[in-house]
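Dear colleagues,

As part of the handover before I leave the project, I'm documenting each prediction I ran so the next person doesn't have to rerun anything. This entry is a single chain, and its sequence is reproduced below.
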Amino acid sequence: MRAMKWVAVALLAGTLAAGAMDTGTDPAHKYAWGENVGWLNAHSDHHTVRIHYFEGAGGWLSGHVWGENIGWIVMGNAGGGPYANTTGSNWGVNLAADGLLSGYAWGENVGWINFEQTHGQPAIDIANGAFSGHAWGENIGWVKFSGAAPDYGVRTLAFDTQPMGTPNWWLANYGVNESYDAGDNLPAWRKFVMDVDPTVPGNYLRITSISTDGGETDVAFTPTSTLRSYTLIRRDDLMAGGWSNVVGQIDVPGTGAEQTLTDDEPASTLLYSVEVKVSP
């Protein structure tokens, strides 16, 4: 049996980011409102609120918000997150994988601001970066992150994507742009789809073996990710026809280790490929 070892990748769709790899606040959507303190600016001339996010794990916030009537509000202490919020030196606002916010911000003039879920339910929509809900300050009352009449709201650029579909937060985590190549002729955007470190040469999805046993063909490949899904595709002629999915081996969740997909009805001559895509 002849087999060709090659990898096809799927692309993400998304909107273009206002700024390359920008994880700060959208300048066009930067205001929160406090009934007792007025407008709060999450993207001032000197500071912005930044999102530090890791797929499937969540992350944390950093940076500053400016209130004309109350001064600076700091989203996390200088050590960075995730923040334990157990002492005066490990406080800050955390971001859960599903977008829920928790923890404390600090204002020198107003004290602690609590991002609590019981009543305020503050969150970020990780699909579009929009903040929602409220935060509570004992000395200032509720801070609201979005509203209407007038229409206002805070939105982060961290979840916007670049032209090939790579989110800003991922590029910022590795300090690369979409076209970055570690020397293996694979740009960073392809490695995002594979969920591998783009700065490591040779770090990409590959078929490691193809074997037959009892009338079936096993195709092994690595590395895999629990945040991606994989489909085994095949064709019997490289010059004619096209690829087709192998029945029962479509959108199989990754295991995080070397993985095998199986074709139960192989022909005498087949070419195999493994397609990877970002799981919903």
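The two ends are 35 Å apart (CA to CA). Confidence is low (pLDDT under 50) at residues 1-19.

All the best with the project,
I.
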